[in-house]
């Protein structure tokens, strides 16, 4: 409320004196901070027309363009800010974030390296470097940077989470579990950590632990399709078909257009010898084939094979 009152006061000041640039700068920042992005853009563009060499104006302009999802203009603004003030590490850091969003990881790495040259203990930059190398599938280097990020900031949820993912993928299960538990300790509602713990338990045939973590995943995120899939596979594996059926039916209530769920429900019906349900599930899955992660061609072949078998049985 205080910010909104100040915005009104500054707007009134500028009505009376449009050349009060200090007031206009303050107004631009307040507008940006309070979600009035388009209005902030107009103020910054006006100020840049007056002060074309002001690096901080370009920096804030970059933030505006990021919020407006215009990454090309955000990149241009940050590069201009760096041109006018090449010693400011914040400019490089934000530029690096833009390059991550643009999936230009090599450029992002160069930007974050510039930050670390000046601030060797910048935990956020180490995390971002780790993330870039993770996205480039260069996991040993990613691990080094993520470990450094976690060392500098033990509360960095994402550093621990990505380390857990690397450990899990490379078979270091105990370390992965340790990291996911650390994430949950820091952020008890981080559903993906519970999902990964559930997936590990599923792979290890640890029924109780898998159910506990997958149930928690779905409690926190009832739209997590992957959790439903793993959970239902677990129940099928232990011949709990009725429970699997109810689980997928509940999942469909939350995600009614997800073709994968109908395909899985069809498989459960088949195991239950409910062939009408099996056929219906396949039909709906094929109808929504665009979001089917199973091969639509194979699902269609399965459906055609079933129909042929039914004709043969009737004949």
Describe the structure.
By secondary structure, the chain is mostly helical. Among the domains are: 1-52, no CATH class; 189-247, Serine Threonine Protein Phosphatase 5, Tetratricopeptide repeat (Alpha Horseshoe), CATH 1.25.40.10; 257-315, no CATH class. Helices cover 79% and strands 0% of the residues. The radius of gyration is 27 Å and the shape is elongated. The N and C termini lie far apart (77 Å).
Question: Helix amount, in percent?
Answer: over 70%
Which CATH top level class of one domain fits? Mainly Alpha
Per DSSP, what share of the residues sits in E-state strands of 2 or more residues?
Answer: under 5%
Q: How many distinct helices? A: 18
From the 3D structure, determine the CATH topology of one domain.
Serine Threonine Protein Phosphatase 5, Tetratricopeptide repeat
Global structural class: mainly alpha
**Backbone CA Rg:** 27 Å
Distance between the termini: 77 Å
Secondary-structure element series? HHHHHHHHHHHHHHHHHH
By CATH, the architecture of one domain is named Alpha Horseshoe
Mean pLDDT: 95
Q: What do we call the CATH homologous superfamily of one domain? A: Tetratricopeptide repeat domain
Quick one: how many beta strands?
A: 0
Any low-confidence stretches, pLDDT <50, length ≥5? none
Please describe the biggest sheet, giving its number of strands, its sense, and whether it closes into a barrel. none
For this entry, give a set of tags:
315 residues, mainly alpha, Serine Threonine Protein Phosphatase 5, Tetratricopeptide repeat, elongated, 18 helices
